[in-house]
Design brief:
Radius of gyration: 25 Å
CATH topology of the largest domain: Rossmann fold
Distance between the termini: 33 Å
Shape: globular
CATH class of the largest domain: Alpha Beta
Helix content: 25-40%
Protein name: carbamoyl-phosphate synthase (ammonia)
Structural class: alpha/beta
Domain MGS-like: 370-566
Domain ATP-grasp: 113-304
CATH superfamily of the largest domain: Methylglyoxal synthase-like domain
Keywords: ATP-binding, Ligase, Nucleotide-binding, Repeat
CATH architecture of the largest domain: 3-Layer(aba) Sandwich
Number of strands: 18
Pfam families: CPSase_L_D1, CPSase_L_D2, MGS
Largest sheet: 7 strands, antiparallel
Strand content: 15-25%
Strand order of the largest sheet: 11-10-7-8-9-12-13
Length: 566
């Protein structure tokens, strides 16, 4: 059932317990191996026998010799059991469900890539390296950013998006030894693409049931940390068709019998496979609860050869949307930069139903302990590079229309004054870096008196603030007309902080880090992702608009009311 660490706990515990309950309901004895005292699977009355031991090859072999079971199920406990399957099979242990050869095919980059090529399935360019020189040459060939990772990783451990040679050098020195015994896989990181997940149960290669969910964040955020929408709301019909077709191809080729998860990266209708996991993903409990179909119950019956009936989910017939948001413990991790990436950092999750994705999203945020900033309507924004400022531009206007006062750091303030107040458009010059604040251009049309009045009102609620200086002991308030960002956070004058990092390198101490860390330490809600911030403002606007019409935004119902029992 996995190990005692972030990324391998409650979601896989649910899958393990569901599997045990199904086995026992079918008249089988179930033995659990788990050393996590906080899980339900280690309760004394859940299984017929509990071994409170670490999940190592030696331990499992000893238990196999003592108990002599009919087989071992490894596909419901996360990545850790998966890493043991080849060694266990070599020692004569019978693995129940999908074959070990198929699992190894998906875990081995070379084998999986060959399979995708044979099936004409697209994937991001990648290569395996045993020395730094050739790794750098590949990165320069495909262009940065790239994703660097070893094989058989748990929760994105030792994975990183790097943006230049210097970061590549530094990361490989601290994260991995690049040698023939421990090669490193580097793949092209596709920017501004959507990540889509396909979770399914298959029986001898034929899909029994499935669900397609989309991440709110662009690709680059670990799936365990992503804000998930189920069913996906902003996916092209052609994208969904291709995702289903590719998934069925892989299931048949691998002869999957049990749970599996495929992660896709989608840009327009260009669909690429990131990876395929022949096990239950951490999304299985969310999907099962949202759709009232226990996917692990189905998977367990498939694995032990019990009869199963396909239970297709008709996504278009659903009258609700579910959104899952992560919960973090950054406040307890002093000094940690609360920015998300490819390595999992969340310690929990909350999921909510709603009539729309916006309602479900706000419900989930509130349930996760994020209050809506509607009392003072004050928000501190440091929008990062120019591309993120441009993406957030319409949402800045929405906040101002909703009566918010925006405290903006220097670059964001200049952008707001030029684009929102003065009506000057922005563009990215053909030879300019997206991270540059160049690209402002003068207005080409005269504005009306009404427009001028609106812009003057906007200007009165956009306040320039000073960023903290790394390593400086300057006073937050002394001798300056502009308020200091940290003092605004510490005094509680702002109810939320939107702080978008300037780069994918979150290891260096920056003024952005100081603002993010201060917000976390002071308990001020913090958003660091452009897509999440955009959806948050969009949802607030929907709420305010509906309530302005005298209608309630919230549809408060219990789970039983969404899924009445027959």
């Amino acid at each position: 059932c996995g190990c005692y660490r972030i990324g391998s706990s409650v979601e896989f515990d649910w899958s393990a317990v569901s599997c045990v309950r199904t086995l026992r309901s079918l008249g089988h004895h179930a033995i659990v191996v788990n050393c996590n005292p906080e899980t339900v699977s280690t309760d004394y009355d859940v299984s017929d026998r509990l071994y409170f031991e670490d999940l190592s090859l030696e331990t499992v072999l000893n238990i196999w010799d003592i108990e002599a079971p009919a087989g071992v199920i490894i596909s419901v406990g996360g990545q850790t059991p998966n890493t043991l399957c080849s060694a266990l099979e070599k020692q004569g242990v019978r693995i129940v469900g999908t074959s070990v050869a198929a699992i190894d095919c998906c875990e081995d980059r070379h084998k999986f890539s060959r399979l995708c090529d044979e099936l004409n399935i697209d994937q991001p360019r990648w290569k395996e390296f045993t020395d730094l020189r050739t790794a750098k040459a590949f990165c320069q060939e495909v262009g940065y950013p790239v994703l660097v990772r070893p094989s058989y990783v748990l929760s994105g451990a030792a994975m990183r998006v790097v943006t230049d040679d210097e970061q590549l050098d530094a990361f490989l020195k601290i994260a991995a030894v690049v040698s023939g015994e421990s090669p490193v896989v580097i793949s092209k990181f596709v920017e501004n693409a959507k990540e889509v997940e396909f979770d399914s149960v298959a029986c001898r290669g034929e899909i029994v049931n499935f669900a397609i969910s989309e991440h709110v964040e662009n690709a680059g955020t670990h799936s365990g940390d992503a804000t998930l929408i189920l069913p996906g709301q902003k996916l092209y019909v052609e994208t969904i068709r291709r995702v289903k077709k590719i998934s069925q191809k892989l299931a048949r080729a691998l002869q999957v019998s049990g749970p599996f998860n495929i992660q896709f990266i989608c840009k327009q209708n260009d669909v690429k496979v990131i990876e395929c996991n022949l096990r239950a993903s951490r999304t299985f409990p969310f999907i099962s609860k949202a759709f009232n179909v226990n996917l692990i119950d189905l998977a367990t019956k498939v694995m032990i050869g019990a009869p199963v009936t396909p239970l297709p989910i008709h996504l278009m017939d659903l009258s609700f949307v579910c959104v899952k948001v992560p919960v973090f413990s950054f406040a307890r991790l002093r000094g940690c930069d609360p920015v998300l990436g490819v390595e999992m950092r969340s310690t929990g999750e909350v999921a909510c139903f709603g009539a729309s994705k916006h309602e479900a999203f706000l419900k989930a945020l509130i349930s996760a302990g994020v209050p809506l900033p509607l009392e003072k309507r004050t928000i501190l924004i440091s929008a990062g590079p120019l591309w993120s400022k441009m993406e957030l531009e319409p949402y800045f206007k929405i906040l101002l229309d909703l009566g918010f006062t925006i405290y903006a750091t220097e670059g964001t303030y200049r952008f707001l004054m030029n684009s929102v107040v003065r009506g000057q458009g922005t563009h990215l010059p053909g030879n300019a870096s997206p991270a540059s604040d160049s690209g402002l251009r003068t207005p080409t049309t005269a504005e009306s008196d009404a427009d001028a009045c609106i812009r003057a009102k906007y200007a009165s609620r956009i306040i320039r603030v000073r960023k903290p200086i790394v390593g400086s002991n300057e006073s937050h308030n002394g001798g300056h007309q502009s308020p200091h960002a940290l003092s605004l956070i510490e005094s509680g004058k702002v109810e939320m902080v939107i702080n978008v990092p300037d780069s994918m390198n979150h290891r260096a101490a920056t003024n952005g880090y100081l603002m993010r860390r201060t917000a976390t330490d002071c308990g001020v809600p913090l958003l660091t992702n452009v897509k999440v911030a955009s959806m948050f403002v969009e949802a607030l606007n929907k709420k305010e608009a509906k309530e302005a019409q005298g209608r309630s935004f919230w549809d408060i119902r219990s789970w039983d009311e969404y899924w009445p029992q027959k």
